[in-house]
UniProtKB/TrEMBL annotation:
Its main location: periplasm. Belongs to the bacterial solute-binding protein 1 family. InterPro entries: Bact_solute-bd_prot1, SBP, TAT_signal, TAT_signal_bac_arc. Keywords: Periplasm, Signal, Sugar transport, Transport. Residues 1-27 form the signal peptide. PANTHER family: ARABINOSE-BINDING PROTEIN-RELATED (PTHR43649), DIACETYLCHITOBIOSE BINDING PROTEIN DASA (PTHR43649:SF12). Pfam families: SBP_bac_8, TAT_signal. This is Multiple sugar transport system substrate-binding protein. It comes from Rhizobium miluonense. One of its GO terms (cellular component) is periplasmic space. It is found in: Periplasm. Coiled coil: none annotated. It comes from the Bacteria. The keyword NAD does not apply.
Length: 424
């Protein structure tokens, strides 16, 4: 699942102010806090997480309240709730919203909870890259819970039919394009490969850019930074897909084409491994390869989520903080793996043979990609209400690159000028 920041001030579903947010409860010495969530398909995940937390902490409890039909509506409702002073105690939201929630003083900084020492967060298993993704001006505003990264899904039957002989799937862009051309040459409308360049928030462009050592904006966020060498390499990579792609498709069409055996290599989120494996079982051999990171300082942009603290009450803050830590723990991370396709963010847990074995029994196709988490941060969102317009413009420009209607250099210049204009 991908996240984007879109139309967060637009009128939509019922606001948080209309929700009956229960007050803190001290019955029988138990303190209960309320957290909002906006992804209804994960109700079982959150219910199990809350139940296990309460079992481990009898004096505390967490109640989840649905507030919106997805991540964006949840953000909308959270902002409205802040306006009318009806915020819950916390919320499960996309990590990319940290900047918005911090700048509007909705999310509470967590530094006092862990003594302001980032090493304390590293002890919880969080990588420095992931901590950076949840920080604004030196303050941490969220504890991540899970994430996903882009990976390469491979139809090994098609690759072998085209003459590919290695037992493992292609590992570099050069290999991907070489064998992709061989597959496309088979005819019959078979695609050598497809990359989901239309993913929301320009997520795939961000990953290509980051993998080549680039970044979207400078550190002070006063100007764009993607118009350098990294951005050029990203678009040049996309351009080469035009050599192996027989039919341009929408994102959903591309996924169905891969599952039907009409595409040899498909690049999308790792969160789709379980559903894809189920769909292709018995039809062809599926293999997973890492998204190529060919720069020594390359990294990936995850699509993560985590828990934010809104309450200012010390007693409730303690409960929310303990719940955050529980979610990050091995037990919380296994609950995540059991109930979703997301990847754990606890790097320390992934180094524990017992945890890793249990996790990979649930998600065996993640075996070859978990080490990517060490270089995975989170996706970037422009500090502007025009973010949606910017990333939609980028998707349109990338379409011209992938279909080879325009050259990478010209498109990069256009993306840069249009982004600067929209940023004001």
């Amino acid at each position: 699942m991908m996240f984007s920041r879109r139309n967060f001030m637009k009128a939509g579903a019922a606001t948080s102010a209309a929700l009956a947010i229960p007050a803190i409860s001290h019955a029988a010495g138990k303190t209960t806090v309320t957290l909002t969530q906006g992804v209804q398909t994960y109700q079982a995940l959150l219910a199990e997480l809350a139940a296990e937390f309460e079992a481990a902490n009898p004096s505390m409890a967490v109640k989840f309240v649905a507030d919106g039909e997805n991540w964006d509506p949840l953000l909308n409702n959270t902002i409205r709730a802040a306006v009318v002073n009806a915020l819950p105690d916390g919320s499960w939201q996309s990590l990319t919203y940290a900047g918005i929630l911090a700048s509007r003083k909705i999310a509470q900084p967590l530094n006092e909870m862990f003594g302001g020492d980032v090493k304390a967060l590293e002890a919880l298993g969080l990588s420095s890259t992931m901590v950076d993704a949840t920080s604004v001006s030196g303050q941490v505003y969220c504890l991540p819970y899970g994430t996903t990264v882009p990976i390469v899904y491979c139809n090994m039957d098609l690759l072998r039919k085209a003459g590919y002989q290695k037992p493992q799937p292609p590992a570099s862009w050069q290999e991907i394009f070489e064998v992709g051309k061989q597959v496309a040459a088979l005819g019959g409308g078979i695609n050598g490969g497809y990359i989901e360049y239309t993913s929301t928030n320009a997520w795939m462009f961000q990953n290509l850019l980051n993998s080549f050592g680039g970044k979207m904006m400078n550190d002070s966020r006063t100007d764009i930074a993607f118009d350098g060498a990294g951005g050029r390499q990203a678009l040049e990579t996309l351009y080469r897909f035009g050599d192996i792609l027989k039919t341009d498709m929408t994102q959903e069409q591309s996924r169905q084409a891969f599952k039907a055996g009409a595409t040899a290599m498909h690049i999308q989120s790792a969160s789709g491994t379980a559903s894809t494996a189920k769909a292709v079982a018995g039809h062809f051999e599926l293999a997973i390869s890492q998204f190529p990171v060919e720069s020594t300082n390359g990294r990936l942009a995850g699509a993560g989520h985590g828990f934010f603290m809104f309450t200012k009450d010390p007693a409730k803050q303690r409960v929310v903080w303990e719940f955050m830590k529980f979610a990050t723990s091995q037990k919380g991370q296994i609950i995540l793996a059991k109930n979703s396709g997301y990847m754990p963010i606890n790097i320390a847990a992934l180094k524990d043979p017992g945890f890793l074995d249990a996790y990979l029994k649930i998600n065996p196709y993640h075996r070859g990609i978990v080490d990517r988490l060490a270089i995975t941060g989170d996706q970037f969102s422009f500090p502007s209400d025009n973010t949606v317009k910017i990333v939609q413009m980028m998707a349109d420009e990338m379409h011209d690159v992938v279909t080879q209607r325009a050259k990478p250099d010209a498109v990069l210049a256009q993306m840069a000028s249009q982004t600067r204009k929209l940023l004001g």
